[in-house]
Amino acid sequence: MKAIQYRKFGGPEVLEYVGLPDPEPRAGEVLIETTAIGVNFPDVRERMGVYNRAETQVGGVTLPQVGGLQVVGRVLNAGTEAHDHLVGRKVMALMSKGAYAQRAVARADMLVELEDDTDDVVMASVPCQGVTAFLALQVCTVLRPGESVLVHGAAGGVGNLAVQIAKVLGAATVIGTASSDTRRAFVLSRGADHAIAYDSPHWPESVLSITNGKGVDVILETVGGDVFDENFACLGMLGRCVVIGSTRGPGKPLAPRQLMAKAQTLTGVYLPSFFQRPDLIQRGLRFLKDGIGQGLIRPRVAATLPLSRAADAHAMLERREAQGVIVLDPRY
């Protein structure tokens, strides 16, 4: 089979289009002939060696590595008879590695079956980012109908899906932040009620104005730095702040007593930690499948490139040229 492998850490140029033996599924796993492969920014960070640095506190990568976290394709065979019923079925799968290949192994408890007429490219664009957004809104906290949500970085992959998921869950008011007029227009097109700039000096005041001074019930935090501290000026009574990322760095430590005055909660989500709870992964995948099938969730595919051009896909992500997810076609 053809696959994208890297034998050392570095820039996109370390990604090699090579021939490798087909992987063998073990007990509890299936082998998938891929038809579409989603590209995520964690793939880039993994390739750069970021996760092998002690300060990241993330499990490292063993070289050589075939990266990638999500695929759509058909099951060729199963590692145990218990999963033989999946053979021949189209599936959407989330995995820890190995997606950048014409054939990939996935855990049978971290995939969902798809209808034959499902759009493979669209479905391959959502597992990592969509499940992260779902876990943030339905597991790390539980967004209730009628509540308000502030989504930072709402034009990004996780953010724009979080906006849509919040609306599906019945949020009364969804506010998205983004860095430019174009990106804020995109946030509104995804269903947000308001779009504001998080680099404005008075953005928390805008949130308070929108919520009639109450503040929001839930904040999905992706920016970090000074923005993290400013969140608490517009997080309401019994509000919950869910940390998904920190593009500006972690910022200053938070004094825990700061949460007491309004009985607020601070929590976080890190997708790989949920691989030990595959029931929650599957729940998220089913939610995405159903939402897309009903037209309630509209993923944004920025480009479809041949698998052999995975390096170009990584370069596009690093230059922030992609408004949406890049999907790889394993046929080429």
UniProtKB/TrEMBL annotation:
Pfam family name, one: ADH_N
GO cellular component: cytosol
Native source organism of the sequence: Paraburkholderia graminis (strain ATCC 700544 / DSM 17151 / LMG 18924 / NCIMB 13744 / C4D1M)
Keywords: NADP, Oxidoreductase
Residue ranges of every copy of the Enoyl reductase (ER) domain listed in the record: 10-328
Entry protein name: Alcohol dehydrogenase zinc-binding domain protein
GO MF: mRNA 3'-UTR AU-rich region binding; NADPH binding; quinone reductase (NADPH) activity; zinc ion binding
Lineage, broadest ranks: Bacteria, Pseudomonadati, Pseudomonadota, Betaproteobacteria, Burkholderiales
InterPro entries named among the record's database cross-references: ADH-like_C (IPR013149), ADH-like_N (IPR013154), ER (IPR020843), GroES-like_sf (IPR011032), NAD(P)-bd_dom_sf (IPR036291), Quin_OxRdtase/zeta-crystal_CS (IPR002364)
Highest rank taxon of the organism: Bacteria
